[in-house]
Amino acid sequence: MIVLQYLLLGFLVVCAVSVSLSKNLLNSIIIYMSFSLVMSMIWICLESPDLAITEAAVGAGVTSLLFFVTLKKIHAIREEKTDEEG
Length: 86
What we know:
The chain is mainly alpha-helical and 86 residues long. Helix content is 77%, strand content 0%. The protein is built from 3 helices and no strands. The protein is elongated and about 55 Å long. The protein starts with a helix and ends in a 13-residue tail after the last helix.
């Protein structure tokens, strides 16, 4: 179990550095979502299921959804045009 916790902590560090160095906003949000999911797994390992559920729901769910909506509103995410639209 200790080895798993160290692997998860290492992945958290990698995610944090990746978000800082990523130039694409969409990739940064996806990495942030994975950070939150790994953090919820760490909370489960630490026997705090209430914090794990909260981290998964708020960190990976609601916050990421708000980030996606914000990127869409500021036109940072562009829809691909189909052949029919020209």
